[in-house]
Amino acid sequence: MSGGSYYVPASSKWPALGSLALGVMMVGTGMVLVHGNSGMPVMVIGLIGILAVMALWFRDVIHESRKGLYDAQMDRSFRWGMGWFIFSEVMFFAAFFGALFYIRTFALPWLDGEGAKGVAALLWPDFTASWPLLEPPDAAIQGPHQTFSPWHLPLVNTLILVGSSITLTVAHEGLKEGRRTTARHWLTLTVLLGLCFIAIQGIEYREAYVHYGITLQAGIYGATFFLLTGFHGAHVIVGTLILIAILVRVWKGHFSEDDHFGFEAAAWYWHFVDVVWIGLFTFVYVF
What residue stretch is flagged as signal peptide (predicted)? Predict the structure, then answer.
């Protein structure tokens, strides 16, 4: 580059190892869903591998940053990379929301005899379209006994996650103004709120299986419920781990008022997860 230089990171093994660990975890997850607990060791090994790769990859990036190797060009690269990553996540969730809307708006009415493809009603002539679908058209599939009230645990989790975006914003503003104590305390509160969200969703999942009959086998409602909330929950877990790493760095005195993109990128991701949850609360729980 004319008039200067820029840092080119060394080749990294972490993307390949991370993909391998993720693949192992997904194979294990599939084994658990199909064969039960016999696939649990494979899933756990994959999960441990993912956590190890995250920790070691974070370590390398932090060391490079602390050595002053990153310049304005690298900062732009990080920002563009994070922006495109979040865009890919938007498309990821858009596909699942699209599947939910397609089922509710087109597939179920067709099975009830409505629309241009209403001939599908010949498959199950006694089926009546409704959502949430408690009685699947195929009598061999047992639907859920009941659905969650959105105004109990889901509302609590909504308030927690929205509140965590507020506390994270306060922490970010504190860091930009040089008030590190404010940044530390409010970021700590954000992490605690994230952990509370995860714990409450775990309680909700237990209630879904034990008391409500909402399982992956409970027809299309159970499948879409766990697909959407499960992937979101996984993103919350990853986001919380990232925030914990950022919190440790803040407590160690890393970042400055003008140089803290690691913090900023984590905030972008967390706010995205918050927006997705609002969509889930609206279209999975309320309507």
Answer: none
For residue 1, pLDDT beyond 50: no
- Counting other chains too, the contacts that 84-90 makes at CB distance below 8 Å and 24 or more residues apart are 86/268, 86/269, 86/272, 89/235, 89/272, 90/272
Comparing CA positions, the residue from 154, 142, 121 lying closest to residue 221 is 142
Q: Are 259 and 215 in the same domain?
A: yes
Side-chain half-sphere CA neighbours of 154 within 13 A: 19
- Write out pLDDT tens, residues 101-149: 999 999 999 999 998 888 888 999 889 999 999 999 988 899 899 999 9
Write down the pTM of the prediction.
Answer: 0.90
Q: Do 154 and 281 contact (CB within 8 A), yes or no?
A: yes
HEC-encoded secondary structure of 6-67? CCCCCCCCHHHHHHHHHHHHHHHHHHHHHHHHHHHHHHHHHHHHHHHHHHHHHHHHHHHHHC
The answer to whether position 137 is within a domain reads no
Q: How do residues 205-229 score in pLDDT, each as one tens digit?
A: 999 999 999 998 899 999 999 999 9
C-alpha span between 161 and 272 (Å, rounded):
11
Do 15 and 92 lie in one domain? The reply is no
Same structural domain for residues 154 and 281? yes
Joined tokens for residue 253: 């005195």
Compute the distance between CA of residue 19 and CA of residue 208 in angstroms, rounded to an integer. Answer: 31
The pLDDT confidence band at residue 2, using thresholds 50, 70 and 90, is very low
User: Are 111 and 127 a contacting pair, CB within 8 Å?
Assistant: yes
* Phi, psi of 124, deg, nearest 5: -135, 85
Farthest CA pair distance, the chain: 76
